[in-house]
Each structure stands twice: as structure tokens, then as C-alpha cells.
Amino acid sequence: MHEINHFVGGEYTKGSSSRTADVFNPATGEVQAKLAMANASDLDAAVERAAAAQPAWAAVNPQRRARVMMKFVELLNRDMDKLAEALSREHGKTLPDAKGDVVRGLEVAEYCIGAPHLLKGEYTDSAGPGIDMYSMRQPLGVTAGITPFNFPAMIPMWMFCPAIVCGNAMILKPSERDPSVPNMLAELMLEAGLPKDILQVVHGDKEVVDAILDNETIQSVGFVGSTPIAQYIYARSTANGKRCQCFGGAKNHMIVMPDADMDQAADALVGAGYGAAGERCMAISVAVPVTDEAADRLLEKLIPRVEKLKVGPYTAGDDVDYGPVITAEAKQKILGLVESGVKDGAKLAVDGRDFSLQGYEDGNFVGPCLFDNVTPDMDIYTQEIFGPVLSTVRAKTYEEALSLAMDHEYGNGTAIFTRDGDTARDFANRINIGMVGINVPIPVPLAYHTFGGWKKSMFGDLNQHGPDAFKFYTRTKTVTARWPSGIKEGGEFSIPLME
Ligand code: NAD
User: What CATH fold (topology level) applies to the domain 2-248+457-479?
Assistant: First the structure.
């Protein structure tokens, strides 16, 4: 059986724990690898090495640190096919989607090449007589990143690229479901010139996560995953005095106004609702057509598109729209929620429950499901399903549609489809959600803007990537300097006013 181990000190190691986890092939249900699961002493050993190496890395000038990122980008492009294949094999998403996963991470590495500029501090000449004042951005030390299964390339890169280019070391704890790509990325960083103890990949579950949260050397924790775990990690790491940003689950609404281009809206909904089997935190999971007449027109276009979706393993090539969901448990949870929607009285306009694929009967495939007449009290509306299930909630007015999205506990992404600039502008201004699309169904900001939701989709203050990442991974130090020629009057005993 293939073994996957921790990547510590530039080498693979099993660690001291004998515990392992199964890594499944989601298309067949078979176990394809055994993953070493770290304990607290494995974590402590990795942190110790990282802490010893970090000061020398912080002392490397930012331009040279940025050159590691430059080389890393080149290596990602060189190994793109290999990375995408490894990613699809463990995650199940199609190869083009897996490449997108790598590219969205690569773009953050590209942004980090600008570190020398982004790390520049501020300077005030003559803040007082003979006094200059300047601020510098200094790294935190050893940082940690805990990442989810659904973007095993992109999200680790969103964390370790800015952390490392700012002069920190990082302990990365990827999802135990698809751990190979994070290891490959760490190997590429080494090949790109990163000193060996600066990026360590430690695999495991709650046991090692708790060790991270309680480790006194680790200065910050970045987390992406489900909301209950995000809330737990935020509470425990901030109680331990760490800087923390935690990104949680989502329920993204797409409002479709009666004046929208219905073909465009229907195309957007199939892609954003069912792409990656709905396992995206920015997937659209609720369609909100405004007026019954618009709802009928939308569903008339949407139903045949959903019925035509092709589901299969990534190895089937371009013929597949989406693959299996991550685990058998995830499949059962999704099917259970679909069942609850039917029981609660929603209309299952497209029923993918009995989907089965010859030769892949034990795989975690779920056929596309489309609900109409969903109401806000139903579990399929309140809960994140994280599967190929789209719910339609009919709203009578724009205000009702707006309130629906605003009242939901999650606030990651949303979209409005309309031809009316006034409505779109009003929506963007009033909605209490972090990322907004106007005729764009998955408004994931590019690397030089920041990514983050509101409400229960985010715990913390600073977003991922963009300028926020450079703030998150550095501390500001402000220096007030006066040289001896200015010191003539003796000591001052009241707060200095710089006059
Ligand atoms: P998850 O919360 O199950 O796991 C995320 C990480 O937390 C993994 O590394 C896992 O090992 C660890 N973990 C799991 N249970 C834990 C526990 N009890 N204690 C400590 N650590 C634990 O999430 P997932 O299933 O891997 O990912 C899917 C979720 O992530 C969805 O809810 C999705 O919306 C969310 N997500 C959010 C964003 C965002 O930016 N907001 C992006 C991607 C995914």
C-alpha cells in the first residue's frame, strides 16, 4: 500500500505515531494510500526546527525571498499536469478544474513576488524637530495553516506563499482526505530555493490540530474549513494569544431579476451550482428568481441543462462536468439532506438520487439534484449541503430576495443577475456578504484583492491574500528616532508632543 508521510526538514518521515488514516479514491471507494497521522510530539519537533531556521530566513532580504517565489511559479507551471493528476486522483475533481485549483494558488505566489514593495514601511521625515518616525513590517516567526479538502493546492498556497515571503516559517496541516499535493508543493518550494525547515507539512486530524493551537511557539493560525471547526479554532487559538483568521462554510444566493438574460443566468447556475460537485465554498447553492413569472422562465431553461450534466471519474476526460464527492459519508449526508427536502415539501425538479455509473458502483457519485419551491425553514435551505444540489427559493420582490440573503447566517459570496445598473448597485451596497458578483456567479477575487466572507463564514479581521495577507503575516513596529545633535534640553517628563 502506498504510504504518505510528513514532510519535515526537507525529508519524508513517518513521525513517532503509529496512527494512520485511509486516503480513498473517491471514484471507486477503494483505499489508495495510508497517511501518517502526527501526534503532539511530531508537531513540536517540526516547530522546533522551524523556529531555529526562521530568524536566518527573515534576515534574507525581501527581494531574494521573492526570487524563491519566482522560481516556485516556474516550477508549478513545469509540473502543472503532474500536480493536477495527483489532485484529481485524491479529490475527484476533473483535470481542468484541478488545474484551476493550482492556478488560483499560483496567482497568489505571483502576487507575492511583489513582496519588496508590499513590505515597505512608512516614513515621516521631521515628525518633530530633528525627529524622524518610521514603521517596519516584521515577520511573526512560526505560523500555522490548517486547510480543507476541497482546494488542496490553492488554499495551502494562499497561506504559505505570503507567510514565507514575509519572512516567516510555516507549519502546514492539510486535509487528511487529499494530502499528496501539499507534499508536492513543499518539495517544489525546496527546489525553488527555500531553506529546508521553513515549510513543514505535518499531516493529521484533531490531535495534531489541538497541538498546533496550544503550541506556544506558533504565533498565528490560518484556517479554512467548516464553520463549527472554524469557530472552535478561532476561540482556542485566540485564547492562547495567537493571531487568527478562520474561514468557514457558506450558502451562496444568486438573485435572478426578471430583466436578467435567462440563458446567461441558467448557464451561470449550472456551472456555479454543480461544478466540482458543488464542493466549493463559493458554489451557488440557492437560486432566488424574483417573481413567479421569472422563476418559471428560469427553470424552463435550467432543468434541461441540469438533466444533461455528465458525471464521471476524471479519467474519462473532457466528457465529464463533475466528479464524485469526497467520501462515502459526504455522499450519505448529501442524500439525507435531499431526502429531508422532499419530506419537507420542496419539489425535486431534477432527481439525481439514484445515479449510478457502471464500473464505479462503489464510487461517491451523486447525480445532480434541483429543487423548486424551497422555503427558508427547510434544512436544505439553512444547512450547507456541499454537494451537487441547487435549491430554488421564489421571491415576490427584490426586497424579499435581498432580505433572504441578508438573513442567512452565512455570508461568503452572492450574486445578482440583472440588466439594471441601479438594482445591481443597490444590491452591492446593501448586502451584508463579503464577495459580490454582478452577472458573475462565482466572484472569487483575484490575488491582488482580498478574499473573505462575513457573518458565520469568517472569524477574524483580515482576509486572505491581497494586501491583507501581508498585514496578517507581519507585525508593525514603529521607530521614533532622534540623533544626538537634537538632545540638548535634558529629560522630558510629560508625554512627548514632538513640538
Ligand atoms: P473541515 O472543517 O472538516 O476540515 C478542515 C480542516 O480542519 C482539516 O484540515 C481537518 O483535518 C481539520 N479538522 C476537522 N475536524 C476537526 C476537529 N474536530 N478539530 C480540529 N480540526 C479539525 O472542512 P472540510 O470538509 O475539509 O472542507 C469543507 C468546508 O470548508 C466547507 O464547509 C466549505 O464551505 C469550507 N470552505 C470554506 C472556504 C472559505 O474560504 N470560506 C474555502 C474552502 C472551503
Answer: Aldehyde Dehydrogenase; Chain A, domain 1 (3.40.605)
